[in-house]
Amino acid sequence: MSSQPFRNLHQGPGLLLLPNAWDAITARLIESLGAQAVATTSAGLAWSRGYPDGNALPEDQLIAAISDIARVIRVPLTVDIEAGLSADPAAVARLVARVLAVGAVGINIEDGEGSADLLCKKIAAIRDHVAHSGADVFINARTDVHLRGVARGEAATEEVIRRAARYREAGGDGLFVPGLATAEAMVAISTAIAPMPLNIMAVPNLPSMDALKKSGVRRLSAGSAIAQAAIARTSHLVSSFLAGTMSEMFDASADYGAVNRLFAPRQWRV
Q1: I want to staple 201 with a disulfide (CB 3.0 to 4.6 A). Which of 134, 146, 220, 223 is the partner?
Q2: In the prediction, which pLDDT does 123 show?
């Protein structure tokens, strides 16, 4: 499957907005509400399969979840594979091949607690493996400079730019900088990495959508925020029910028939 339609979504004119899914129903709902593509949240997906976030999800569990999601949507699917579930670049490349085989066209892969050198090796291995197989993938290289406090202020911006250049040379297509929240830094990074599209993650008190576009951001992900909000709401409803209060469950519930119709027969992927 070609990743070109997904690549094109990064070229504007507006922001590519990705409300991250964690299972088939959330992915299908996101698609039905007008999203141009579906991305997974590694945290939400891991939790939905009974594992913690942080490269703990077994590979077969990840593939099973992606298969379920890809079967019920038609828009492009990009998958957060965390750090690739392995420190071995060859193993990461094989994982990506499996991810693509079940219907995804893009991945996120992070440096996390690892080194920039290691992520470069993983990206290069993925790119080489994909090229030899005749497949296609959009590689969104995630750097956790901001999330993990590797550097602060201008030093953080400089470090992100340095890593971006290396990830692009290794074969990365986009740059994801979760935790990046200031317009000034966004401008500096997007200018330095162009034409590589800049992806950021939704956090409280981000600049407006218009300001993000003007700052060079091309893609905005919800991350695990929607999953966390859904869990918090579920927790509240369950606690209320256990306390003997049922009315809130019906105040803003989804219509049963409408939800069921999301899965009415159509040309599913197989």
Answers
A1: 223
A2: 98
